Amino acid sequence: MNRLLLLPVAGILFLNLAGCNTQQNTANKAVSLSSHNDSISYMIGQDIGKSFKSMKVDSIITLPVLLASIEDVITGKAPK
Predict the structure, then answer these.
(1) Radius of gyration of the chain (CA)
(2) Distance, CA of 15 to CA of 2 (rounded, Å)
(3) pTM, full prediction
(4) Could you give the CA distance from residue 8 to residue 14 in angstroms, rounded to a whole number?
C-alpha cells in the first residue's frame, strides 16, 4: 500500500517544489482544481498535511528542503 501512494505523493510534493521557485507568495493563492488528477493531488496533500500536524512535526519541517529531497530522489540525483 505504501508503494502505491509513493508516486502520487512524490508527484504532488514535486509540483509544490516547482511552485516554491516562484517569486510570488502563493500561500494565500487559490488553487485551481481543473482536473480529476488535480483534485486527487489536493486531497493527498491535505492528508499529508493533517498527518504532519497530528504527528506534531509540522513546526520542525522545512518544506522547501523536504520537497527538494523528494525531487532529488525522483530525478535520480545523489543525496546531499
Answers:
(1) 13
(2) 20
(3) 0.51
(4) 10
Given a contact cutoff of 8 angstroms between Cβ atoms, the answer to whether 17 and 64 are in contact is: yes
Using an 8 Å Cβ cutoff, are 42 and 13 in contact?
no
Tens-digit pLDDT profile for residues 13-63: 666 555 555 444 445 567 889 999 999 988 988 998 899 899 988 889 888
**What are 11's three cell numbers?**
508527484
Give dist(CA 56, CA 52) in Å, integer.
Answer: 6
Instruction: Evaluate whether 47 touches 39 at the Cβ level (below 8 Å).
Output: no
What are the residue boundaries of the structural domains of the chain, listed by start?
2-16+33-75
Task: Specify the 3-state DSSP secondary structure of 52.
Answer: helix
Q: Scanning the structure block, which residue is given the C-alpha cell 530525478?
A: 75
58 three-class SS: coil
**What b/e sequence results for 41-56 when a residue is b if at least 16 CB atoms lie within 10 Å of its CB, and e otherwise?**
beebbeeeeeebeeee
